[in-house]
Amino acid sequence: MDQAAYILASGWACSYKLVEDGQRQIVDFQIPGDFLGLRSVLLNVSDHSIEPVTDIEVTEIHVADLLAAFAQTPRLATAMLWAASRDEAMVVEHLVNIGRRDAAARLAHFLLELGARLALVGLGSKEGYACPLTQYLLADALGLSAVHVNRVLRQLRERGLVTFRDGFVAFGDYDQLANFAQFEPSYMDQTGPLLS
């Protein structure tokens, strides 16, 4: 049987792990353009689950076709290597978020990173972006309670930094928020030496 991975064409999904007591840790959110299940088909291991956050559409990519495309188009393989490196850098930031940033900086950094990712695919800007995530999903991604997420969002809004209302994240003062969260988006840069 030919294994397949998927590219998220539209909608949002999340990857997560359940711990023994049933609690969920969201590892990441997938947005249009992201791969779903690539690691599990290439390494024959599935160490997390994926669940749609909204209605989604995906494009199926058979692994044999993907490997053939890499052989014929080395630039595509290089782009995939860059994407994997970017994903690894995001995991590092997520670990720092949960381990060392306080709740307000953690949430601010997360919203900024998500905005930068969405901007790469034309769905966000420094003004803001549409966001279907609930406070419960944010809580599971950030290691906080939904009540704490609500409290922090209110604090950030009252400081004029960011507002998350009616499915839209609006940055009030992007530069001040980035400074507050110590957000430096260079780890998501698309213009590395391998791709230029």
How would you characterize the overall build of this protein?
The structure is a single chain. By secondary structure, the chain is an alpha+beta fold. The chain is built from seven helices and nine strands; from the N terminus they run ββββαββαααβααββα. The strands form three sheets. Strands 4-1-6 form a three-stranded antiparallel beta sheet. It has a three-stranded antiparallel beta sheet with strand order 3-2-5. The chain has a three-stranded antiparallel beta sheet with strand order 7-9-8.
CATH superfamily of the largest domain: Winged helix-like DNA-binding domain superfamily/Winged helix DNA-binding domain
Uncertain stretches of 5 or more adjacent residues: none
Report the structural category: alpha+beta
- CATH topology type of the largest domain: Arc Repressor Mutant, subunit A
Question: Biggest sheet: strands, sense, closure?
Answer: 3 strands, antiparallel
State the domain count.
Answer: 2
Number of strands: 9
Element order: H for helix, E for strand: EEEEHEEHHHEHHEEH
**Could you report the average pLDDT, rounded to the nearest whole number?**
88
Which of globular, elongated, flat, extended, rod-shaped describes the shape?
globular
Summarize it.
The protein has 7 helices and 9 strands; from the N terminus they run E-E-E-E-H-E-E-H-H-H-E-H-H-E-E-H. The chain is α+β, with helices and mostly antiparallel strands.
